[in-house]
Design brief:
Radius of gyration: 17 Å
CATH superfamily: P-loop containing nucleotide triphosphate hydrolases
Number of domains: 1
Order of helices and strands: EEEHEEHEHHHEHEHE
Shape: globular
Number of helices: 7
Distance between the termini: 30 Å
CATH topology: Rossmann fold
Strand order of the largest sheet: 6-7-8-3-9
Strand content: 25-35%
Helix content: 25-40%
Length: about 210
């Protein structure tokens, strides 16, 4: 993959006790790349994404986002995470309030309203924007989670099985939103052939026993 790397991984390893999840990963992911992360269930895709997000530490090696160690404050500011697309929302808040909360934390106040309106339109949230997410279907919740990840225009987006709860029209909305952001670097763990076809590069993690 050509171009300057946004995400760099060097000799990365993660183990739980004696069980090695992945080891000796070396990778440069350029700005604007779409990297498909494949592998069987249990191969470590979610674990790797968690390590890149900073919610789990590497057992060995290192990874950086924009030159900053993953998990550091500068790296977190560049990174948006959607590891369980239909989970992790504030149940009592509406779809719009969930998205607005992230926007207020990460954007200047004057930019919040326009940013929220943009992702609402992109992911077709208007029909249930004011509905508490506890009353939303799994597919609706997934779209809210993706909107929340995109609202602050991150440099790196980590997606774990984004199509798990999305129907075909909703998956199209997701990819159209990504295509509008050519500078956004994405790492997408998925089992869907369509997701792989939309990515220019792929990394398949081997299964380990």
């Amino acid at each position: 993959m050509g171009g300057p790397p946004l995400l760099t991984i060097r000799r990365a390893q993660r183990r739980f006790g004696r069980r090695v999840i992945f080891t000796d990963l070396d990778l440069d992911v350029p700005v604007g790349a779409r990297l498909f992360l494949g592998g069987n269930n249990g191969s470590g895709k979610t674990t790797l994404l968690r390590c890149l997000s900073g919610t789990l530490t590497l057992s060995a090696g290192q990874a950086t986002v924009g030159g900053h160690p993953v998990g550091s404050l500068p790296a977190r500011r560049l990174t948006a995470v959607c590891l369980a697309p239909e989970q992790g929302l504030y149940e009592q808040l509406s779809a719009r309030e969930n998205v607005t909360l992230v926007a207020r934390l990460r954007l200047p106040r004057r930019a919040v309203r326009a940013a929220v309106a943009r992702v609402e339109a992109e992911l077709d949230l208007a029909g249930y924007a004011t509905v508490p997410v506890q009353r939303c279907s799994a597919g609706m919740r997934a779209r809210v989670s993706i909107a929340r990840a995109l609202v602050a225009e991150p440099a790196l987006l980590l997606l774990d099985e984004p199509g798990r709860s999305l129907d075909e029209p909703s998956r199209l909305l997701l990819w159209q939103a990504l295509d509008r952001r050519p500078e956004l670097t994405c790492v997408i763990a998925s089992h869907l052939a369509d997701d792989r076809d939309r990515c220019r590069s792929a990394l398949t993690l081997p299964s380990r026993r």
